[in-house]
Amino acid sequence: MKMDMVNFTIRSLRPYLQRQLVDYERTKFQEILEETPNALDQTTEWIKESVNEELLSLSETTLTPGAENSSKPCLSPTLVLNNSYLKLLQWDYQKKELPETLMTDGTRLQELTEKLNQLKIIACLSVITNNMVGAITEGLPELAVRLKRISAVLLEGLNKETCNLKEVLNSIGVQTCVEVNKTLMEKGLPALNAEVQANLIGQFSNIEEEDNPIWSLIGGSSCFYWLFCFHFNLLYLAGFDL
């Protein structure tokens, strides 16, 4: 009975406490800023970078032939924030400090960044595999799923300093050849010849190079980041633990 009364009291007070909490946090936040004026330097710089990028993008659009000219570009706060948060997915945690307002989310953001890098690499590997042996493995969706799972496992701990990406990619290439040959033999088809296998492994290992065209195409695509965010939003809404 007492527990029921306590729960009822908490539920009754919750809306009031929530309203008071917002005012309390705003007041405390303002006090911190007054005591430490430079407390948000990193956050300010983070937002400024996005503002400048969006202004540059708007200027380029205005100068494009055929575009409607306006006296002053209209900057959307939503676009600025979206761009700011997307930048966090490419954040170099070894060289740059996180914005002060996101310090408590640092671990989670690093995990998301690692997952993004994994997805980018797996996407590159899938493109190479499909290009090299797609005609041979066409109609074998279970093989593609298995290869992605193997790649994901081998790419765990990608952001660790001890991780040698080239060796990992080489291992994925070797394992990919093994799985493809195994599937082909089960279907009564000839295995990949040595030249094709060596070429496949070599292309896998070269993904990490800065001028790699496939990495540049996938890694530099803003659409990829939007799809990544959309993917995790769906998982979150579905109740998955991220």
From TrEMBL:
<protein>
    <submittedName>
        <fullName>T-complex protein 11-like protein 2</fullName>
    </submittedName>
</protein>
<dbReference type="Pfam" id="PF05794">
    <property type="entry name" value="Tcp11"/>
</dbReference>
<comment type="similarity">
    <text>Belongs to the TCP11 family.</text>
</comment>
<dbReference type="InterPro" id="IPR008862">
    <property type="entry name" value="Tcp11"/>
</dbReference>
<dbReference type="GO" id="GO:0007165">
    <property type="term" value="P:signal transduction"/>
</dbReference>
